[in-house]
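DM between two lab members

TW: hey, do you still have the NADP-dependent oxidoreductase domain-containing protein entry open?
JB: yeah, one sec
JB: this one, 318 aa:
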Amino acid sequence: MSTVILSSGYEMPVIGLGLWRLEKNELKDVILNAIKLGYRHFDCAAHYKSEADVGEALTEAFKTGLVKREELFITTKIWNSDHGYVVEACKNSLKKLQLDYLDLYLVHYPLPTRHNGTSPLSLLAIGQTASLLGKDKVLDIDVTISLQQTWEDMEKTVSLGLVRSIGLSNYDLFLTRDCLAYSKIKPAVSQFETHPYFQRDSLVKFCLKHGVLPTAHTPLGGAAANKDMFGSISPLDDPVLNNVAKKYGKSVAQICLRWGIQRKTAVIPKSSKIKRLKENLEVLEFQLSHEDMEVINTIDRKCRTSLPSKTWGLDVYA
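TW: and the structure you got?
JB:
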């Protein structure tokens, strides 16, 4: 498995398995099959509501000798409503995942929202990941919690030995710059949507320049799922990508992932099918020519395909 050394000093596999939108009844089989195929990097989040199921699968993998804990790289994320309770939320995720430490803990969105508890001191709502809307049907953003405060609490998870590396998710260039300015422990990773239709070249270059590993979530543009959920367009239908795929005898998805890796981003595609899981790992076995990389660079549509804020009453990407 190809890896990259993070600024924290730890190794992270450049390809992982994203666990968003995997059905609970298929999670265990998918994770165990992925480990058997050679996956060592798994990306989950409190918001996916599947950490306990992931924990069961990982525990089985360890108990049966399929893999050792130290051979895996496990990522999870703190949800918006837990920004004021970072350490508690981290411990809650660890308990569900049945792990002693996380390899990577991310701020899922730079967006603290109202905590779901009945009082400010209530910890009952830790890990309850609904996005609370006010009476006006607009997301209840908590303006009393700064992102600097959130990050300082993320740093505590490292000093407490709960987490090895910390990072960002869905941060833009300016918020990433701010985090670099106030952080004592620099973000090791920044995870954001990027693919041939949403290349975000400036953000990728900025992260690489400052020692933050850009990681592509939605590296295939969300494929059919985002077309169905958000009405997005999919790069997998693009004629240029299809021509490149024919040239190499690969699938369009493999071309997208290989392009992502060659531009020095890690990629975390999601799939539940063994054939696709295998195909996604095979992108480590070939290279795109400089000319073909340049051709793909010309098809950027600056088109975000993952649009969760459609249900939040305001466009948080505006």
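TW: got it. The chain has eleven helices and ten strands. Strands lie at 3-5, 11-13, 17-18, 41-43, 73-78, 102-107, 163-169, 189-193, 213-217, 266-267.
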